[in-house]
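hey so i finally got around to running both of the ones u sent me last week. sorry it took forever, my laptop kept dying halfway thru and i had to restart like 3 times lol. anyway pasting them below in the order u listed, first the sequence line then the structure token line for each. didnt double check formatting much so if smth looks off just lmk and ill redo it

first one:
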Amino acid sequence: MELINNFIMLFTESAPFLLLGLFLAGVIKQLVPDKWITKTLGENSSVVTAALIGTPLPLCSCSVIPTAMGIRRAGASKASTASFMVATPETGVDSIGVTFALMGPIMAIARPVAAIFSAIVAGKLVRIWDKETPPITEEGKKSCCGMSKKEPTTGDKLKSVFQYGYGKLLSDFMNWLLIGLFFAALIQTFVPASFLSQYGTGLFAMVVVVIISIPMYICATASTPVAAGLMLSGVSPGAALVFMLTGPATNIATLMVVKNELGSRSLAAYLTGVIGTAIAMGLLFDWFLAYYSISIAVSHGQHDEMTSIFYSIAAIILAMLMVRQVVIKYNPAQIFTSLFVNTKNVSNKNDKNMKSEAECHKS
């Protein structure tokens, strides 16, 4: 029962941010020209650009998934997409504010700097280790003979935003999202809060933090009070920084999307970049604090309970959208029709299509 409750709470907590991310992905797809994305985040663009674009955005580890998928399918390179997916969930203007409030200005500066560096390293490794391939594209965009379609109205564009974000994109990643949330619920249910605090400082503590944070599904803002609590329990600031970097960027749902959209080699580069850089930055941060005899005062804070009516409504809407995608995909009536459709009618239809296409090319 506790496992189910934790899963529901995590789903509820993620729902508003997922809905926001899906909407932004639809807006990007509809309003931002593919040429601009290709030019800014394409094959020859700098991963630094992607990191700097993603760093201030207040998107968590769940909402960045559809947004990143949207820019990738619009023409962004693998390296730029990876850099964006690392920088965006690891920090943002909202999480920086919470970090400043709970841990002070030094940690508030160290966090975005480490996030940008981590994103750049991950993007560079993807570019070095993997070869660029065309992104997944939607079929049926062009009409016969490349004839341009009628200019869509504002209503048509808004409809396309919702159809793409809450339709195709949600269908593509929702299975891995649910798996990621389930593993996060397992960790929350069976791993005690004191587990991390007993290891304290050093490389081993940071490795343990990484192992625990990979299956977790936590956003940058939510990870901040957790990290503050760890520091109050005796964990070093460097290990807390590792948690805030790896937790939002390495959950299972994100990793599976990286694998599906970018490939296995890019996934290996992504993980290596995020984990290696996080540990290096954590060790460097602890050394910096010790060398200059700087101590970080932590104000204990708690993440707001995600049980408000707003979050509950968002969770219900998201669940209904997911159910809708399942019904569309596994519609019994559609399956029956596709199995027993008249092959003669299909053949005639194909003949007509071929004839009209031939006439189109003649004209």
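and the second one:
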Amino acid sequence: MKTMLAKVRAYLDHRRALGFQLKSEGLRLLEFARYVDALKHRGPLTSELAVRWACLPKAADPLWRARRLEIVRTFAKHLVLTEPSTQIPPRHVLGPAHRRRSPHLYSSAEVQHLLRRAGELEGRLQPHTWQTLIGLLASSGLRISEALHLKVSDVDWKQRFLVVRKSKYGKTRLVPLHPTALRPLRDYAVHRQKLFPLAEYFFVSERGTTLARSTVGQTFDQLREGIPYSRRPPRLHDLRHTMASRVLERWQADRKRAVNRILILSRFLGHSDVEDTYWYLTALPQLLAEAAQRFALNEPENS
């Protein structure tokens, strides 16, 4: 009889062959499989096993537990096709697996604070890298991973757009640049070119290498010091939320409002579903209030 590890590996190979990356999900499933095999379990997957593993460690956040169970549940739904005795864990038995937390919406003063702190970093290139990176994220709404993976050849200076390749869900899209965003990018490119003429990636470290995500997180922790918050510290990703929310805010103030325009923003941000873009209506209380008022008046937003 196959071990659970062998079953998980076969499942991951199958799904990845279909184009699914399953990075974090794959890691969690391998952890689950090793846990089950360590118990010397050789029977079918059971709900009891799945729930027991999902609840580890005991001090874990409830959302984390629910997400772990959801990952195993998806695997079980696949496994039951060839092993009918497989038990599929009940949905939401540990609560919801997903919850969007309210983002920190940066004020103009807070963005300036980040830029000023970035300019105080040490190094020949690091201050310029961080000021340009923050400015790009704030003006374009790119995901941080998208910005870090930008290559020198992905910036079209003539047509004024970025090519974001194989981003989330494997999609590639063009992101137009406002003229005010183009000049800082060009200035940075010139400075980087002098130091590292053979650099492949647009944003690079002091050694000319790609920026490590862990290093980026540590540096941003320093830059955000001094920005007040209530529940959780501001994130770099919140610059994307801020950009999207401010765009919707401007559209709502315009006579045309956001009717038939939200789909444009959805594609600009690289969302796979326009519902993900509508979520930004909840980020600003006034946007949510206006949306509720339009609903009450039977004037729903059209996508």
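quick thing i noticed on the 2nd:
The mean pLDDT is 89.
anyway thats it, ttyl
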